[in-house]
Amino acid sequence: MARRRRALVGVVVGVVVGALGVSVGGVAGAAPDANPDGLKLIKTKSSLLGEHYWYQQTFKGLPVVNGYYAKHVTKGGAVEIADGRDAVPADLDVNARIAPAKATEAANAAVTARANRARVAGPPKDMVKQPPATSGAAQLAVVGGPNARLVWNVTSRSTEGVSRSLVDARTGSVVESKVISDNIDGRGSVFDPNPVVSEQNEQLTDLNDRNQDALFLAQKNVILRNLDGSGNLNGTFVNIKEAKGGLAHSKTNTFVYQRQNDKFEQVMVYYHVNQTQEYIQQLGFTEVNNESQDFSVDTYAGDNSFYDPSADMITMGEGGVDDAEDAEVIWHEYGHAIQDDIVPGYGESAQAGAIGEGFGDYWAVTMSVPVSKGFELPCVMDWDATSYTSTEPHCLRRTDGNKTTDDIVGQVHADGEIWSRALWDIHQALGRNKANKVILEATFFYDPDTSFAAAAQDTVQAARLLYGKAAAAQVTKAFQDRKILP
Ligand SMILES: [Ca+2]
Ligand SMILES: [Ca+2]
Ligand SMILES: [Ca+2]
Ligand SMILES: [Ca+2]
Ligand SMILES: [Zn+2]
């Protein structure tokens, strides 16, 4: 569309002078520049061979989308111009008729619709309804070239990554919408959240990691988003760093295994951590363990998994049912990584430790809610627990117990049940998304050695500031019922 041309301008003198008013020689067939002086220096870079000056093309002070101009000056003084400016008619009206909020709405609708279409490629039955795209402020800009117009430039975040939409600022129609983040989607097969819940079957057993028809049927094909394209299970939010039997690798980013293959657990970790981080981002949090979390999978023989704050690494054990075959074990451990990321040195008191365990259990449960069809929601680690419990339903712990602070025994997992019940009550009182916003927001105010009472106060405060008095009263009641608050 737009003219793009590179011109070797030869040796300096006179050609490129100081600021860039310079016309670089006419371009055949193109309209004359409406404002050849509308160049704004945005970046200067040095390389081995010279200096590089990058300019944004502007029109009446507004950026011209994709309009660029670069000047490369070699050490020897040679100048090369890359002129990527687009012609803009001098009389283009730069007064928007559409309000930015309306443009944002149109852009988000387009992005959400596309993201949902992309997800239909997955299994239709278990589709989780995705939250709509979110976006920052709309910026006024100009599109040059043959279809020159004034647009609102809206950046949205959706399950597809980051998208840029251009909305005509006079008509409100979406002119263009495309994903600008460069992550790669892969394919995988997982349990979601685990076979006991998805099959609603408490009779399933591990049989020493053997493949079984019932477990094969419990597998679900999924899209693995935000992969870095290396062919490993490494991406924006998860890095499978070590694994028994070696790292899964696929040139086509296809990671389909059955559960007897240890690589199945690597896929479980990648998928479920990516899911939970996307959810956190959709709630509006951009700094809750917003990094590629390291995992070591199936590398511990005991029936335990753990988060190591000194290495910022989560290790998934393989005792009994491989821990990473149950997403709720993954989410519990990720809960520890979340708290450690938000509060440096978190967990330095017995009650802070109990809050950590209670939060991990709660996080596993709240993440399971959308994929559990209501089956035994407060039951934590339904599949992993089949190895060590005989009563049904099989649960390591629950988030709907009746413990209060009268029942404190000084063991972090046992005492954590007091906290997880309070959070679960908040979940039911406020609804999933509001509860999780309140709970995550409150965590930013925790001390590393916080107590039940202090953390409860932080949570009440977050509820009041985010959702008002009535919500704060509901949160207060949840803590009063546990005798955490008076
Ligand atoms: Ca396995
Ligand atoms: Ca981390
Ligand atoms: Ca296990
Ligand atoms: Ca569960
Ligand atoms: Zn834990």
How are the SSEs placed, and which strands pair?
Elements: E1 5-11, E2 39-46, E3 50-59, E4 62-74, E5 78-84, H1 100-119, E6 134-135, E7 139-143, E8 149-158, E9 161-168, E10 174-179, E11 184-190, H2 195-199, H3 213-217, E12 220-227, E13 238-243, E14 254-255, H4 263-282, E15 293-300, E16 306-308, E17 313-317, H5 327-342, H6 350-368, E18 379-380, E19 397-398, H7 412-430, H8 432-443, H9 452-467, H10 469-481
Parallel strand pairs: 11-14, 13-15, 15-17
Antiparallel strand pairs: 1-5, 2-3, 3-4, 4-5, 6-8, 7-8, 8-9, 9-10, 11-12, 16-17, 18-19
The structure holds calcium ion (4 copies) and zinc ion.
Keywords: Hydrolase, Metal-binding, Metalloprotease, Protease, Signal, Zinc
Organism: Kribbella sp. HUAS MG21
Domain Peptidase M4 C-terminal: 396-483
Structural class: alpha+beta
For the largest beta-sheet, the strand count, sense and barrel status come to:
5 strands, antiparallel
Rg over CA atoms, rounded to whole Å, is: 27 Å
Helical element count? Answer: 10
CATH topology of the largest domain: Neutral Protease, domain 2
Average of the residue pLDDT scores: 88
- What CATH architecture of the largest domain do you see? Orthogonal Bundle
* Name of the top-level CATH class of the largest domain: Mainly Alpha
What is the end-to-end distance? 68 Å
Q: What small molecules does the structure contain?
A: calcium ion, zinc ion
Low-confidence stretches: 1-6, 8-35, 120-130
CATH superfamily of the largest domain: Neutral Protease Domain 2
